[in-house]
Amino acid sequence: MAHPAHYREAHPFIFVMTHWINLVSIVALTISGFYIHYPFLPGLMSVMRGMHFFFMFVLLINLAVRIIGAFTVKSATRLGTREVDTDIKNWLPQKLNRGQMWPWLKYYLFLKKEHPIGAKYGVLQKIAYLFTIPLTLAAAYTGFAIWGPTMDWGFLIAGTDAVGGPMAMRIIHYYIMWGFILFTAIHIYLANIEGTDPSKLIFKWEETEGLQFDAEGRVVGGKGH
Ligand code: HEM
Ligand code: HEM
Which of 22, 25, 36, 53 has most ligand 2 atoms within 8 Å of its beta carbon, as the pocket-test mutant? Predict the structure, then answer.
């Protein structure tokens, strides 16, 4: 299958970095969170709590940088071309996404071999990526509501009272972790069935030499495309 390109305009360096930081933070928060919930080895609680408290700030600062970047950095907004536009366009519905929901679903359900070509991200990809923002904010809200230094802040107490106390809030925070695990598992799986090496797409892109596109924006030439 001809597949979409990996090239500099599709993955500006800053977004490669924010994605890496996201990945490391989520892994660290999941390991430490699991440990806080169920200490599977003796004697590591203070290290794990320290790790959790450090990475929760890293995750939130990284989210802020990613959002500012979406409005200030330009990236490719159409698969298979080098045209660039403000990155936020990749996150919202575009003309190029129209009518592609079903073809994308069929591709994901193995009913169709090729996926539609158009915008950089498909319809379901956009929904999933946007969903990571409220999910992160929900983790932050429920997390700060059970964190000693912030738990008595008015807007956090209001939520804690509404759900029935800090223990209930803690359980909600725990379930949010499963939301991240589910998202990440599906995300990694889908990145791998794309037919190209996902590490090249986002982790360590390499400029394809002599890149050529066909009329539909598929890569048809270039070294190692
Ligand atoms: C081994 C783990 C992961 C792999 C293999 C992976 C793979 C990818 C790939 C290939 C893309 C680019 C898709 C494209 O341009 O067509 C992408 C984008 C994205 N990934 Fe991941 N990812 C991983 C972990 C995560 C985690 C843990 C999160 C957050 C919870 C995450 C959130 C995102 C988001 C929000 C995007 C949109 C692009 C952007 O922020 O610029 N990923 N990922
Ligand atoms: C984004 C901001 C976050 C904040 C402010 C935060 C804060 C906290 C706090 C204060 C605790 C309680 C620690 C203790 O009792 O010693 C905690 C526990 C926990 N956190 Fe987070 N966290 C955040 C993100 C995350 C993320 C992204 C995950 C998972 C992907 C996660 C998973 C957990 C788990 C599983 C627990 C244990 C809950 C339990 O005891 O059942 N947290 N977090």
Answer: 36
**Maximum alpha-carbon separation in the chain:** 61
Does the residue 151 lie in any domain? Answer: yes
Ligand nearest to the CA of 70: 1
Give the domain extent around 38. Answer: 8-206
From residue 89, give the alpha-carbon distance in Å to each of 72, 74, 75, 133, 137. 11, 9, 9, 16, 22
Q: Give 175-192 pLDDT, tens digit per residue.
A: 999 999 999 999 988 888
* Residue 87 within a domain: yes
Give the position of tokens 């330009």: 74
Going from the Cα of 152 to the center of ligand 2, the distance in angstroms, rounded, reads 17
What is the tally of structural domains in the chain? Answer: 1
Residue 214, domain member (yes or no) = no
Taking all residues of the chain, what is their mean pLDDT, rounded to a whole number?
87
pLDDT of 213 > 70? The answer is no
Q: What is the pLDDT of residues 80-139, one digit of tens each?
A: 677 889 999 999 988 888 888 888 888 888 888 887 777 788 888 899 999 999 999 999
Could you give the C-alpha distances from 144 to 33, 68, 198, 206, in angstroms and in order? 14, 23, 34, 40
The tokens describing 174, both together, are 């725990």
Going by alpha carbons, the residue nearest to atom 25 of ligand 1 is 23
Ligand 2: atom nearest CA of 181 is: 30
- Residue 186 has a pLDDT of 93
Whether residue 56 is contained in a domain is answered as yes
**CATH classification of the domain holding 141:** 1.20.950.20
Does ligand 2 come within 6 angstroms of the Cβ of 178?
A: no
